[in-house]
Design goal:
Elements (H helix, E strand, L loop, with lengths): L1 H15 L11 H9 L5 H8 L1 H14 L5 H4 L18 E9 L3 H16 L4 E8 L7 H14 L2 E6 L10 H9 L6 E5 L3 E3 L3 H11 L3 E9 L5 E3 L2 E3 L5 E3 L17 E2 L7 E5 L17 H11 L3 E12 L8 H23 L9 H4 L2 H9 L5 E7 L9 H15 L2 E7 L7 H9 L2 E4 L19 E5 L1 H14 L5 E4 L4 H11 L11 H11 L2 E2 L2 E2 L6 H23 L2 E4 L2 H12 L8 E4 L6 H8 L11 E4 L5 H20 L9 E4 L6 H4 L3 E2 L2 E7 L5 H4 L4 E4 L9 H8 L4 E3 L16 E2 L3 H13 L1 H18 L2 H18 L1 H15 L13 H4 L10 H4 L3 E2 L7 E3 L5 E6 L4 H9 L6 E4 L4 E5 L8 E3 L11 E4 L1 H4 L16 E5 L4 E3 L6 E4 L4 H10 L3 E6 L4 E6 L6 E3 L11 E5 L19 E3 L5 E3 L3 H4 L11 E4 ...
Helix pairs in contact: 4-6, 6-7, 14-28, 16-19, 17-19, 22-26, 28-29
């Protein structure tokens, strides 16, 4: 048993540290290609506008000359290939299928562009042209194909459908015919009205390598004038598809269109897909055209793969070349939309609704963001002072890899920086990974809306102290409910204290506490909090110390305002614990350790390179000049370490010091060429450190102060270069002196130990090998993911709404339905504003009635604007649940085999529409409506004809409540006021309540006094309290108002084998004429049971089972005191119980006088009705 447990724990540990499938970064060659033709730039726009003319020139030169014109065909006399991408060894990689039916002129341009794009690859490719019964002459196509094959070496074959069929067979069937003849690993589907650019296929192909689980990739489609047509597409619940593009009111170059992301479907106008995912071909039900590619994308995602939108790949789409008859085209799309919705209705249930009005009411960018991020599990917004660049500094490398880990677990990441150059390689890198990058001024968190909606993001990451300080107040206002993870990168106050001490020659001691180091510094210079005790503490020293105290206080305040704080080393974790013990940090502040991060694959590939000890020469120091500890380290090198090396007789003649760093070095550095005969080479900024790390023998890190974990050390180690460092430099890196790193503290020992490592191969190789193991164990993406998982687990545990978002997201993305009741990121909760969503049970706000006057082949007017349209809802209960949960819904018409139409405005019998002929649409429609909603009446708990149960706000002071000690009941963190109101309605003696979503809700009975007290104050208790009081009402007599046949019943959510208890007082009275129940009936359906209770003035509620008794009650009911109806195996579950709250309120109003205005109640309940309550 113990062995089995240990094996399980080992498996769990391995699972936590398994390789992270994060998106790969763009290579340096890719970034250089992006820079040649910047995406979304004016240069690209001009190129697009002239693309058709240039391709036509190339085609004409191929047709009329022995040699093509180089300028026209964009190559210098011969086909130019990207040799570096060749990893196929001649294996056929791409099979391109281009279908056409007439339109020979446009087809020839499309074919030319296709072959030129394929020729830029070093991968082997083939082209299959499918002529779907063209009536135009195709001689030009045949000749052009021969010429293109001659000059590119790409085989081009023509298949004619007339050889097999008697006429046109349509787009899908034509492609199916060609698919049987393909041999490539990837299939490119192409319309004959699309012109590809030279890098289109290259970037599509690279997407399969850079992003995991990609099944198909679609490019960015643009029109002839450069206008953005399509940047991915979204599919709605009714099967309708919408392209994301400039037609939505955004600029063509808006950041929402600039990054790689998953999309609902990819248009087969240009789609690169894995061969195995399309071998079955297109579904023939969509013949002749439209919705085949939409259906294909659904199948790809059902198979567990993504359809990816790739903005760096561009395709010019002329459009409407196949079917230019608008009426015919519209008819085909409408017919196939219905077929598509019928086939995928269960999966579409988890998509957004096209008809919900807030798509158009919300600000454009926020609406498109919601659509663009639909296929993510949750949305993260990441704040940083500047855009991280992978080749600039250690912090940037860590930030990028942290984002890659977040992307790998299904997050959508929006990155916000103070200033953003969208055409920089740094932004391109993030966009390629799949990050939505925006500048600070472009961020819209909704604070300008007239009515504040909920924040668009689920988790906030803020990196570095200064960035958090800038954004903190705004985030508190715009996203108060969203948890914040504060990534310190390093503890700034620790680094600044060490800098302060180093400037005066005082060493920070790691073997004593942080607070003791502060004390020793103050003692050394006689600094007290109010000034100087004597002349030994200069005025400047006091000022610098006080300035440091202010920064320490600011950083501590930021930590306290975060939900969780991230640090990079165990030393910093220890300091955080000390600050908690000192009560500077709140005790419940969650702290997580996520250190430097290096890619698993990069670790393996770099270390596997030969060591070449003998061929390596010199030492290397890497550091950004803008970072003060690096400047101090160079001073240490120049003034103390190199002079000692120069004096040492063991120093070899080939020893040279290389200094690499971005930024402007100090003036004194520029004049240094050598120190004591040892050459010093200043390289400045180097984009690719691999080139220099592959040739140096030793790296040095002589840091005397700082904080965090040093990326320069990790970088050298993963390249197989051993390191000599100071104790400060290796702090928190899990390194052991003389095992995986060489450690020295002063200039003399540093020079001596450096020579030991530089000259001794055995020591060099031993340190090098152990160092790499250390990096792989503690600084890989797998280790980082383990830390991120812990952070998210904490958020999910302490933030219940995040747990729901994750669960709902997984359910929705599985594509198997079940989203009709989801109330978070997916389903109705994702698209209906929170102030419109009903969280109270359906009976309270329902009051829907079936309209039996409408013939069963008619519906309410279908030409109006619908609230929603859903295909083939399996039951009327699902339709009812959907409508009842949205305050805007006034009614619906349902058919089990057709659409269900939901309405949001006035509906009446004067506006009916015949749903086709009975022969075409079989009868079976049923319509429900809510007359109170149609009349635009205030949404209240509607009365059964005798009394209203209504509540008014009685306090607008958001931190004042009724006297808490007077409350008779309280509950913790009820999410909405509706939840609190429901509990008050169901409690017959509840007369008022005060609600706060993040605090207690207090309930008060009829004896409460209108005395308000402060609930803390607006500083220490977050404002947000609202108090409600039940409106007094008179108990009407029987004759005062007419009887309504639709009283309100509230559904009690308890296990389905529970019912209300009997009236024990009546049962034990000995009077055989008094029954324990008001009535019992056998096997009633839900409608019959409700009608039976509604017609009886004494009925306070009922429990119904379609295969058992229905019990009607006349005593006071309590949902907290219900009884099990036998055992589950004896009585099958299926009970539903309802309370009639308005009648209970009237009983409470009468009190102990026993003189109820209801004549029927007087005869039915004996004695004080309050004594009938179940306890």
């Amino acid at each position: 048993m113990l062995l089995w447990l240990m094996m399980c724990l080992l498996m769990i540990s391995k699972a936590k540290h398994q390789r992270v499938r994060a998106p790969r970064m763009a290579t340096q060659m890719q970034l250089e290609e992006f820079a040649k033709m910047p995406p979304f730039s004016s240069e690209e726009g001009k190129w697009i506008q002239g693309a058709e003319r240039r391709i036509r020139g190339c085609r004409d030169s191929l047709l009329h000359f022995d040699m093509p014109v180089p300028e026209a065909c964009l190559f210098d006399g011969q086909i130019e290939r990207f040799k570096s991408y060749n990893d196929t060894n001649g294996v056929l990689t791409v099979s391109a299928i281009l279908t056409f039916s007439n339109s020979v002129e446009m087809t020839s341009l499309s074919l030319t562009g296709l072959v030129l794009a394929l020729s830029k690859l070093s991968h082997k490719a083939e082209v299959i042209l499918v002529d779907d019964s063209s009536t135009e002459s195709t001689i030009m196509i045949k000749r052009l194909g021969q010429r293109l094959t001659r000059f590119s070496g790409i085989e081009i074959r023509i298949v004619r459908t007339t050889q097999t069929f008697s006429g046109p067979i349509g787009y899908g069937m034509a492609n199916n015919l060609a698919l049987k003849q393909t041999n490539g690993k990837y299939i490119l589907l192409l319309n004959n009205d699309v012109i590809l650019f030279k890098t289109t296929i290259l970037y599509l192909l690279l997407s399969f390598k850079s992003h995991p689980d990609v099944g198909a990739v679609v490019p960015r489609f643009v029109g002839s004038e450069g206008k953005l047509q399509e940047a991915g597409s979204v599919i709605f619940t009714d099967g309708r598809a919408m392209q994301l593009g400039s037609s939505l009111g955004l600029d063509d170059d808006d950041p929402i269109f600039r990054y790689v992301r998953s999309t609902d479907y990819g248009s087969a106008a240009c789609l690169l897909i894995r061969r195995e995912l399309i071998l079955g071909g297109f579904d023939s039900i969509y013949r002749p055209a439209y919705y085949e590619d939409t259906d294909l994308s659904m199948s790809i995602r059902r198979s567990g793969f993504h359809v990816l939108y790739q903005p760096f790949a561009v395709a010019l789409h002329k459009g409407s070349m196949t079917y230019n008859n608008a009426t015919f085209k519209s008819g085909l799309m409408s017919k196939n939309q219905n077929l598509f919705a019928r086939k995928w209705w269960q999966t579409l249930e988890c998509h957004y609704s096209h008809w919900v009005t807030n798509w158009t009411n919300r600000p454009g960018i926020r609406r498109v963001l919601q659509l663009a991020s639909r296929l993510s599990l949750f949305r993260i917004i990441f704040f940083e002072w500047s855009v991280p660049c992978f080749d600039r500094d250690s912090g940037s490398v860590r930030t990028i890899n942290l984002i890659r880990v977040l992307l790998s677990i299904g997050a959508h990441v929006t990155f916000v920086a103070n200033d953003v150059d969208y055409d920089s390689p740094c932004v391109y890198q993030l966009n390629w990974l799949g990050v939505h990058v925006i500048k600070q001024k472009a961020l819209d968190l909704g604070w300008g809306d007239d009515v504040k909606s909920s924040c668009d993001y689920d988790i906030i990451f803020v990196s570095r102290r200064d960035s958090f300080a800038m954004w903190q107040r705004l985030l508190e206002i715009a996203c108060p409910e969203v948890p914040v993870a504060f990534d310190t990168v390093d503890l700034h106050f620790l680094r600044e204290l060490r800098e302060l001490m180093a400037a005066k020659g005082v060493s920070y001691q790691n073997d004593i506490k942080f607070s003791q180091n502060i004390y020793h510094y103050k003692q050394r210079f006689q600094i007290i909090d109010r000034g100087m005790e004597d002349a030994s503490a200069t005025e400047n020293q006091v000022a610098r110390y006080r300035n440091w105290l202010i920064k320490l206080s600011d950083e501590v305040k930021l930590m306290n305002s975060s939900t969780a704080t991230i640090v990079v080393s165990p030393v910093e974790v220890k300091i955080i614990r000390e600050l908690k013990a000192m009560r500077q940090l709140r005790p419940d502040l969650a702290v997580f350790h996520i250190s430097n991060i290096h890619d698993d694959e990069t670790l393996g590939s770099l270390y596997s390179k030969p060591s070449n000890f003998a061929q390596r020469k010199g030492c290397l120091f890497v550091g950004n000049w803008a970072h003060p500890p690096n400047v101090d380290a160079v001073q240490f090198l120049i003034h103390e370490i190199l002079p000692n090396l120069a004096k040492n007789p063991r120093t070899p003649s080939d020893l040279v010091l290389h200094i690499v760093g971005a930024g402007d070095p100090p003036m004194w550095v520029n004049d240094i060429r050598d120190v004591g005969g040892i050459p010093v080479v200043m390289h400045g900024f180097i984009k690719d450190l691999d080139s220099i790390l592959a040739h140096v023998r030793v790296a040095v890190a002589p840091l005397r102060y700082g904080a965090g974990v040093k990326g320069k050390i990790n970088s050298a180690m993963i390249h197989g270069v051993p390191v000599v460092a100071t104790p400060m430099a290796i702090e928190g890196m899990f390194l052991t002196a003389n095992e995986d790193v060489v450690v020295a503290e002063n200039g003399l020992s540093f020079a001596s130990r450096l020579l030991d490592l530089y000259l001794n191969y055995d020591l060099w190789n031993e340190i090098r090998t152990a160092a790499f193991v250390n990096v792989r164990k503690h600084f890989s993406t797998s280790t980082a993911k383990h830390g991120v998982d812990k952070l998210l687990d904490f958020f999910f545990t302490t933030q219940p709404h995040l747990q729901r978002i994750s669960e709902d997201g997984n359910r929705a993305l599985q594509g198997t339905g079940g989203c009709d009741r989801i109330q978070s990121k997916y389903g109705i909760g994702a698209i209906v504003p929170s102030d419109r969503i009903m969280t109270m049970n359906q009976g309270v706000h329902g009051n829907f009635e079936q309209d039996t006057m409408i013939p069963r082949n008619y519906i309410f007017d279908a030409n109006m604007n619908f609230l929603d349209i859903v295909w083939a809802m399996s039951s009327v209960d699902k339709a009812k649940s959907r409508c009842e949960s949205d305050k805007a819904c006034t009614g619906w018409c349902w058919h089990p085999g057709d659409w269900t139409f939901f309405y949001y405005n006035a509906i009446s019998h004067e506006k009916l529409q015949k749903r086709g002929n009975i022969g075409e649409f079989p009868p079976g429609w049923a319509c429900w409506l809510n007359r109170n909603r149609i009349r635009n009446a205030p949404l209240i708990i509607q009365d059964d004809g005798y009394s209203d149960v209504r509540f008014d706000i009685v306090s607008h002071n958001s931190y004042r409540v009724y006297k808490p000690k007077a409350s008779t009941m309280l509950e913790w963190r009820l999410l909405t006021s509706d939840d609190a109101q429901r509990r008050c309605v169901l409690n017959y003696d509840c007369a008022a309540y005060c609600h706060h979503p993040e605090d207690w809700t207090f309930f008060y009975d009829i004896s409460f006094a209108d005395i308000f007290l402060e609930r803390g104050n607006s500083v220490y208790n977050a404002p947000g309290w609202t108090c409600y009081k039940r409106i007094p009402h008179e108990v009407a007599t029987l004759n005062a108002r007419p009887l309504l046949v639709n009283p309100v019943f509230v559904h009690v959510q308890r296990p389905s084998n529970f019912v209300f208890g009997r009236n024990e007082k009546a049962a034990s009275s000995g009077n055989n004429n008094v029954k324990p129940y008001l009535k019992e009936a056998w096997r009633l359906n839900e409608k019959q049971a409700r009608a039976l209770c509604a017609k009886d003035r004494k009925c306070t509620g009922y429990c119904n089972h379609p295969d058992d008794f229905t019990f009607l009650y006349e005593h006071i009911l309590d949902e907290h005191h219900m009884q099990q109806r036998g055992e589950l195996n004896q009585y099958p579950p299926g009970w539903t119980c309802y309370i009639r709250p308005n009648l209970l309120a009237s009983i409470r109003k009468a009190g102990s006088n026993m003189q109820l205005a209801y004549a029927q109640l007087q005869s039915g309940i004996q004695g004080d009705p309050l004594n009938g309550r179940l306890n």
